[in-house]
Design a protein that fits this description.
The complex is a heterodimer of chains A (114) and B (113). Chain A is mainly β and 114 residues long. Chain A has no helices and 11 strands. In chain A, strands 2, 4, 5, 9, 10 and 11 form a 6-stranded mixed beta sheet that branches. A 5-stranded antiparallel beta sheet of chain A has the order 1-3-8-7-6, with no helix packed on it. In chain A, a hairpin with a 5-residue loop joins strand 6 and strand 7.
């Protein structure tokens, strides 16, 4: 069965600093992997997705993530944090064994300090 | 091309009541998935409908049921509401099994008192 673990329920960075949000997944077959962002009182917005093409995936708003099969990881990074990046971030996995249903992690809340 | 819409935005119900939430899929999408997101948690998969039939279900009791209509709009029905049903309910539409290209609606916030 698929699963997702997000390390750290809260991450705090200074404006301009590197953002690193960690995600490890479990899947018995090649997975699809996603990062979503959720702003307060809003739905989910897709930041980026991995679908077995390039292992380094670039998304919106300057975010990127690297698929590392050997580490079963899909960490999200952004070189320079902006105040507007403060939000909840969810890592998610989907694969054929689960009928392509999407399994989400518990989320990481990102705080950006001025 | 229209996005995914949900109604109502907010809803308050009393324990024991029944509720219907609605979702209008993105144009051309024949698959809809429903998720429950409790406060402070990630979304949990409830079930998925493909061409008007249930096509997968998560760990939710039978009092959670759904419908998908020929125009690909859908409903989530919850009977005998419990306090723990208070959550943000999200629907997402996709084409066939291509859930790696699913689009989420803004959600319906349900409060059960």
């Amino acid at each position: 069965a698929q699963s997702v673990t997000q390390l750290g329920s809260h991450v705090s960075v200074s404006e301009g600093a590197l953002v690193l949000l960690r995600c490890n997944y479990s899947s018995s077959v090649p997975p699809y992997l996603f990062w979503y962002v959720q702003y307060p009182n809003q739905g989910l917005q897709l930041l980026l997705k991995y679908t077995s093409a390039a292992t380094l995936v670039k998304g919106i708003n300057g975010f990127e993530a690297e698929f590392k099969k050997s580490e079963t990881s899909f960490h999200l990074t952004k070189p320079s944090a902006h105040m507007s990046d403060a939000a909840e971030y969810f890592c998610a996995v989907s694969d054929s064994t689960g009928g392509f249903k999407t399994i989400f992690g518990a989320g990481t809340r990102l705080f950006v300090k001025a | 091309e229209t996005g995914v819409t949900q109604s109502p935005t907010h809803l308050i119900k009393t324990r024991g009541q029944q509720v219907t939430l609605r979702c209008s899929s993105q144009s051309g999408h024949n698959t809809v998935s429903w998720y429950q997101q409790a406060l402070g948690q990630g979304p949990q998969f409830i079930f998925q409908y493909y061409r008007e039939e249930e096509n997968g279900r998560g760990n939710f009791p039978p009092r959670f049921s759904g419908l998908q209509f020929p125009n690909y709009s859908s409903e989530l029905n919850v009977n005998a509401l419990e306090l723990d049903d208070s959550a943000l309910y999200l629907c997402a539409s996709s084409l066939g099994d291509r859930t790696y290209e699913q689009y989420f609606g803004p959600g319906t916030r349900l409060t059960v008192t």
